[in-house]
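Quick question, first post here. What does this chain look like in 3D?
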Amino acid sequence: MNILIIKLSAIGDVIHALAIPPFIKETFKDAHIAWAVEKAAAPLVEASPDVDDVIVVPKKEIRSLKGFIKNIVPLKNSLQSRKYDYSLDLQGLLKSALVAKLANAKTKLGTANMREGSCFISKSVKGKHKDGHIVERYLDVARAMGAKGEPKGFRLNMPSEVKSKVHKILENIAGNFSTDIERLRYAALIIGGNWPNKRWGAENFAKLSDALFEKGIAPVIFGAGKIDEETRNEIFERAEHNPMDLVNKTNLLDAAELLSKAKIAVGGDTGLMHMAAGLGVRCVMLMGPTNKERNGPFLQEENAIEVNRDCKGCWKRKCPKDLDCLSAISVDTVMEKIDKML
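> Answer (accepted):
Ran it through. Tokens below.
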């Protein structure tokens, strides 16, 4: 059986979908699974041992008429180099519908929430989890083609250069906290968020960092981009004990390998938190504009902490009330959750 998964972007969405290939191969052990993905997330998909082929879709190149003419035929040839029994459109947008159309699988399936006309190319699967967690919605699409079993996370096989780089980072972290790698216990503090109201704030992370330090758990800051750099700087100004700084110092695979070895991860509803959850790391996810039923840490939604506000789960990128959404979650509340988990 030949299966094409279509999940092009964003990083967090691709991470959610990584649970699908191992789930399919529990039932169809000899299935050949290909994945159509954009360049930015391709390294993650390539690291999945359950994905046999990765097809990079040149989204940027085909935006212009000239780029479309130049790239559409090679993309079509790549997608049609194998005859697919199923294509699973987990994106449900016009761009993924184009890929599904070009691949021309015998059976085209998509998620419960297809948009931009994608439902006219792939059949929308409205399974029993159509209003549930986003990973379960993806799994329902796999179930529609006969896949069975219990949902799990995912695994990644890292290149040797990633393992070597991470080992050096771990040695550095251990040295900074006066221990060795074998006895190192660290918490991943994931400070970013693509929505302003998904961010917990530097003051809170600084207090949490100090509290973890006092318990013998090394706080390690993860993040990327200018805003995370500014948050990192403020954390260092406020914290009594300097956490380890990995902001803008890791790529996706480095971060995944480091997260897999963390004792716990804390942060908002963002890609690296979902990465940690998928790798089986215990996660305390701080949630305000989104809800744990759909977006919580998969298979451990009970570890999410939602704000105590009437407007929680508003799904707005910026608070219309101009509130600092996650400020309603105290450091003490987070530490109580961590203590119970550890």
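The longest strand covers residues 32-37.
The mean pLDDT is 94.
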